[in-house]
Amino acid sequence: MQYIHGIPFVNRPDLLELALQSVRPFWPHTLIIDNSDTGLDPSMWPVPIMRPPVPLTFSQSMNLLQHLASERSCDCLLFMHNDAEAGAGTPKRLLAIIEEAIASGQRWGVAFTHYDTLAAFSMAMVHAVGPWDTTLPHYFADNDYYRRVRLAGYEIINTGLEVTHHNDASSTIKSDPRLTFLNSVMFPLYGHYYTTKWGGPPGNETYDWPFNGALSLLFVNSLREQALYRQLASTYETVEGNLLERADDRTTAAQIEALRYFIHVARPQRVLETGTGKSMFGYVLSHLVHRVTLYTFDGDHRCAAGVALLNAVQTNVQAVFTLGDTKQTLPTFDVDGIGLAWIDGGNDEATALNDIQQAMRLGIPFIAVDDARTMPEVAAAIDHALQAHPAYVRLANPFYDHDARGMVYLRRR
Question: Which residues constitute the domain of residue 23?
Fold first, then answer.
């Protein structure tokens, strides 16, 4: 198992020494993020010291550690408070628990000991959930992140392993009168932000979507205000819906956020789409990715104009259009390395089933199918495809409850 173990540090080197001595098995993988005023002397410590150009907040330090773990293709990231002290045997037992969770295919996100005084983060979860909210630099940042982990469908493992948190926690602030004062000023403000974001304080949240979707709706509106959107919308007249037309705003926002979420998971360089329409999917995709090839299929020759316009106006997505019935065109399509498929579900069951199964034939790891809620024939096609292809399972969509059309994601095991 590949991992790194990070300890952000601001003050109290005496407690940092206790923390390090308690996790000797981690030393070959450990680094200290030095956010102190004066700086640590690297020659005095048994593990590498990384001193950022400017001191980082807690959330920024966590994002740096996530970035480093991703760069090194780690399976997990271990994090420790610098005022924590692991009990005898805790480090080795924690590693064993993580290795077992990885080997069993368990959908785990975080493994706690004494809460997160020493914790492990699944990098599969990190890639899906994303970075820590830097608007919350210290307090409430943990409540926010672990709520997002749960909402994304990842399990939090409470190991119960022994770890002491010295001074009843918050040693960094308690050891510096300036930080104590600033925290007294800022703590209520961060609490207000958290309550606004989740519709209630920790333990009494009412939203399962940050800000109840307000930021997502602003993004949708910004997409509709751009010249390219208006040009694509006017390419031809149709009663069929798509990502940005003929759907309520909340459904549109939910589908776009689901797409954003699974792009973080899949990280595709090539994408397949059935149901080109007015190239609205390609247009939205161009605001979420950089340098992706989109293979798009449709039986309506009018779609070609939108594809040409999309390719002429932006460079993030290069669309390759195939005209014809997908029951004839997809079986002969053979391109490797497609990371995500977007299937227009607004068809009869035979077409929907063909499109899903062809995406499975290509081994595409993530497949999105639209209209599962509004069209029973599409829901039936999904069920039949899953029965015929046990290598695929339905994946939790955090935004499904807000999507009136019903975007379903399938994942290859």
Answer: 3-198
- Over residues 44-62, the mean pLDDT reads 97
110 and 252 inside one domain: no
> Mean pLDDT, to the nearest integer, of 107-116?
96
Residue 206 belongs to some domain of the structure: no
* Model confidence at 299: pLDDT above 90: yes
DSSP-derived secondary structure letter, 28: G
> Residue 210 falls within a domain, yes or no?
no
Q: Does pLDDT of 73 surpass 80?
A: yes
CA dist., res. 230 & res. 351, Å (int): 30
Reported as half-sphere exposure (CB side, CA atoms, 13 A), residue 138 has a value of: 19
What is residue 243's predicted lDDT score, i.e. its pLDDT?
85
CA gap 156, 125 in Å, rounded: 11
Output the pTM of the full model.
0.88
Residues 76 and 190 in one domain: yes
Q: Find the CATH number of the domain harbouring 229.
A: 3.40.50.150
At 46, list the tokens. Answer: 């048994």
Cβ proximity of 130 and 138 under 8 Å? no
Where among 163, 198, 233 does a domain terminate?
Answer: 198
Domain count, the chain: 2
- H helices of 226-342, in order, are 227-233, 249-266, 280-285, 303-313, 326-329
Give kind and range of the element (H or E) at residue 349. helix 349-361
Higher pLDDT, 246 or 212: 212
Same domain? For 47 and 145 the reply is: yes
What six digits make up the tokens of 255?
């589908």
Task: Tell me the per-residue pLDDT of 374-408, one tens digit each, with 9 for 90 and over.
Answer: 999 999 999 999 999 999 999 888 899 999 999 99
Contact 260, 366 (CB under 8 A): no
Tokens of 9: 């540090």
**Bridge pairing between strands 108-113 and 155-158:** parallel
For residues 78 and 69, give the distance between their C-alpha atoms in angstroms, rounded to a whole number. Answer: 9
